[in-house]
Model the fold of this input.
Amino acid sequence: MKVLKDPWVSLIASLKSLGDMARFLLRLVLGSPRALLRFELVSEQIYNAGALSLVIIMLSGLFVGMVLGLQGFQLLQRFGSEEALGTATAIGLVKELGPVVTALLFAGRAGTALASEIGLMRATDQLSAMEMMAVDPIQHVVVPRFLGGVIAMPLLAAIFSMIGIYGGQLIGVQIMHVDAGSFWSQMRASVGLRDISEGIVKSLIFGVACSLIAVYEGYYAEPTAEGVGRATTRTVVTSAVMTLFLDYLITAMFL
Amino acid sequence: MRKSRSLSVGTGLFILLGFGALFFLTTQTTSHGLAFGSKPHYDLIAKFDNVGDLKVGSPVSMSGVEIGRVVSIDFDMKVYKAVVKLSISDKYNQIPSDSDASIYTQGLLGGKFIGLTAGGAETYLKNNDQIDFTQSAFVLENLIGQLVANFAKSSGDATHDAAPAAPEKKK
Amino acid sequence: MNQSSNIVEIRALNYSVSGRSIFSNLSMDIPRGQVTAVMGPSGTGKTTLLRLITRQVWPDSGSVQVGGSDIEALSRHDLYALRRRMGMLFQNGALLTDMTVYENVAFPLREHTDLPERLIRQLVLTKLQAVGLRGAIDLMPAELSGGMSRRVALARAIVMDPEILIYDEPFVGLDPISMGVILRLIRRLNDTLGLTSIVVSHDVEEISTVADLVFLLSGGTVVAQGTPQQLKSYPSEIVRQFMGGLADGPVPFHYPAPDYFGELLGRDGET
Done:
């Protein structure tokens, strides 16, 4: 593996990529107000990133919630605290699983789509053509896609958590016969607005990170078929690692 | 670029669904009732020897009906008691001033909550009044200790002719 | 823009990539109002030259003047203003794939002007008529053949009535008929619209039929310039080889390799 051959060179290269990405982010942020004025471009991208991901997010949310219900019930049963299942499911989803799993799924579905779209436009000279027509491709193509991802992510995470809680309730109340009242009342007693806001902050930050990585890799992809493919792969890997790393940071900050 | 209307409709539905989920999470999973300032409430103080694992946000009920929540638990260094502040909904403003507050357990091994039992006085508790009669939480270890002590004492009486070995208070 | 007779002036241009020198001390004058061809063997950097003229890349040293202004000194705003007066046809058309033909041609108008939709439609129809594709107005780029998508891209390039039209290898991969169509369009548009056209190509026969002036690049510099007739009888080995399509000459047939017999015998000797 290249990393092992010369770790010093790879470290410098990674730092350079990080710096490049940060500067790219600055360009995107500075271009955002203008892009929002042409909202039809952004809303089309919200559709691409969000609405088209709905099916996978809702399905995954349901299954993850159901697993939480099962595992949580088994665990709590050992301490005789089955009524706390509502709390366990809600906290687990809202603070951790919702934002993180949504981000990972987003990177896989929407992130790769973004990277390959932009990469393909790079490879077929569409971005250069725009430059030649005196249209800034960053403003026209990249910023709307970036904003679409950032806006869609917290909404997707919230939908994931909501469906997940119902999934947990399905298993816990309907199948494992935990008392429905306790399920919800204990949840309401233990879950606070601070938990919800931690979840929202996380998914916003994940949204920025994953969207940035996707559009960056696509924009700077090599203009060949293999180049676009490599950019897509890098998007998923980098997004996943970044998400998990940021997850730790934010959790520690909120503590 | 100028795609059909269905795209806008789809986007709108998605955004609606997303904000609906956020609304659900903030209202249905948190304690939305008796949020400070939203519903009118008044505060009462109760001091306990031992609150066990009573938590802030635990319910306060009367005759099994939830009438309020625990909003703070502090420790009074002067009298060495736990000071619990209860927030009661204004609807229930006719609690006799000699009522007592006890800490109960939900179910067999669940969370703690405070139950108020009405007294007979003609005056009612007002904002920042103190409930004078309190009963602390039921701590399992103390009961076991008591049982063991009683058991040892009764068996000690029966065999009082035998060498009285001082019973150990087993925990 | 001052009315000098040269619309593009390049002086002492040097450009290298990864240590390899692409252009050294290149100087060219491209006259206004004519069809100028830039030719040369593969790899001489013809497309790179176009990028240098349109400032998509920066030279290491030397100056490029377009329309009397030094493009090095232009701000981003002025550069975009200059680019609006130029049209460029990319090798593969480079149409925006998620828009119809109509929307592609209308794109520059929508981005840069506030014209009402009615007027835009008329302009788009006119330009598509000029390239002969008015009937394809509602097709998607994926439904077009190579030649057709290049013609649509041409319509898009002229929709803002530019002064300079740049063609990057417009004949690559086209059948003879489509090639003839593009050739005719290059000449006709140049004359009827009063443009300056710069065509980068290596199709000697074809481009010779429409070009007024030809530059032949090789080894990072201009080795010949003149009318197509002049170049055909140019007293230079490399020009002769290029214009005649000869397999061997200054550009050798064999890639550098060790002695042939030595290699054959050496192999046998080893076993």
